[in-house]
Amino acid sequence: MIQLTSETKALGLLGHPVSHSKSPQMLNAAFSYHRLPYVYLAFDIAPDQLKEAVAGIKLLRFQGFNVTIPHKISIMDYLDEIDSVADAIGAVNTVIERNGRLIGTNTDGKGYLRSLEVEMGISVDQESVVMIGAGGAARAVGHALVSHGVKQLTILNRTNEKAEYLATHLSQWLPSIQVGTLKDGKKILENATCIINTTSVGMHPRIHEMPIEADWIPSHCIVSDLIYAPVKTALLKAAKAKGARIQNGLGMLLFQAAIAYEQWTNQIAPIEIMRQTLQK
Ligand code: ATR
């Protein structure tokens, strides 16, 4: 880390808990690489402390901060402005300080899309995507897909009403979104070129669970799972066995931080330096 001085600017993460987070390692390594006068710390803030924490951050003139579970929605009440991306997603993961004002944005969806482009070499305007899930993560990924011209989108979810609700919300960018429940998965997945799991199914400790059946995965497609613990979910193992190309959630974690870094510093993020800290 570069030397801390009276000119050093603070950044941080507000969450509850935060002890597992790799964001401090990732971002401090990037600041060091560019010799930028920033330091990034993690703060464990309970929900009933959030308002005071934001007031403190403002007073101390932080350059900005990240927000994680459980504050991504409630933080919106305490910011001066919410940009159009965070507004469309309905959640904030990054805050930028400008002229004493705190502006909320969301880099999750864009970060995910960049991970698909960089790690899998695909552009979504060529892809027929089936997105599994319709919760908060699906909202960020779905918004990024439709606002970047995805060729075709189908939302598959356990609960039909939630899939319908998300499709209706996203229809302002793409009118022709199809929906289905997990039971319809076999037919719907036949024509998919890219399958994205945004649900928590398969996450540690229930590592043997899968949101769809292995037989339904077409061998020619890409299967991407937002989960990174475990690094290879049962879904990804099954997809690989079928001959599909696979991606885990570490890419999204990396690129959402890279985009936040770029917004705070106006410098291109040193991706490989950041990736190394994630893999440690
Ligand atoms: P997040 O913010 O992480 O996306 P969420 O908003 O609670 O979390 O959404 C979780 C998603 O995982 C939902 O799509 C949920 O399906 P429902 O809408 O039917 O609840 C899906 N999900 C969670 N557990 C599941 C399970 N055991 N089987 C299938 N889908 C599941």
Automatic annotation (TrEMBL):
The residue ranges of the Quinate/shikimate 5-dehydrogenase/glutamyl-tRNA reductase domain are 123-201
What is the stated purpose of this protein? Involved in the biosynthesis of the chorismate, which leads to the biosynthesis of aromatic amino acids. Catalyzes the reversible NADPH linked reduction of 3-dehydroshikimate (DHSA) to yield shikimate (SA).
From which source organism is this entry?
Seinonella peptonophila
Instruction: Name the family the entry cites.
Output: Belongs to the shikimate dehydrogenase family.
> Subunit arrangement?
Homodimer.
* PANTHER family documented for this protein: BIFUNCTIONAL 3-DEHYDROQUINATE DEHYDRATASE_SHIKIMATE DEHYDROGENASE, CHLOROPLASTIC (PTHR21089:SF1), SHIKIMATE DEHYDROGENASE (PTHR21089)
Q: List keywords of the entry alphabetically.
A: Amino-acid biosynthesis, Aromatic amino acid biosynthesis, NADP, Oxidoreductase
Q: Report residues binding shikimate.
A: S21, K22, S23, T68, N93, D108, Y228, Q256
Give the catalysed reaction(s), semicolon-separated: shikimate + NAD(+) = 3-dehydroshikimate + NADH + H(+); shikimate + NADP(+) = 3-dehydroshikimate + NADPH + H(+); L-quinate + NAD(+) = 3-dehydroquinate + NADH + H(+)
GO BP: any one term: chorismate biosynthetic process
Question: What are its E.C. numbers?
Answer: 1.1.1.25
Q: Does the keyword Transcription apply?
A: no
The encoding gene is aroE
Where is NADP(+) bound in this sequence? G133, A134, G135, G136, A137, N157, R158, T159, N160, E161, K162, L226, G249
Where would I find the Shikimate dehydrogenase substrate binding N-terminal domain in this sequence?
A: 13-95
Q: Name one GO molecular function term.
A: shikimate 3-dehydrogenase (NAD+) activity
Instruction: Name the chain's protein.
Output: Shikimate dehydrogenase (NADP(+))
Pathways per UniProt: Metabolic intermediate biosynthesis; chorismate biosynthesis; chorismate from D-erythrose 4-phosphate and phosphoenolpyruvate: step 4/7; Aromatic compound metabolism; 3,4-dihydroxybenzoate biosynthesis; 3-dehydroquinate from D-quinate (NAD(+) route)
- Which residues belong to any copy of the SDH C-terminal domain? 249-279
Which residues does UniProt mark as catalytic? K72 (proton acceptor)
Recorded GO cellular component terms are: cytosol
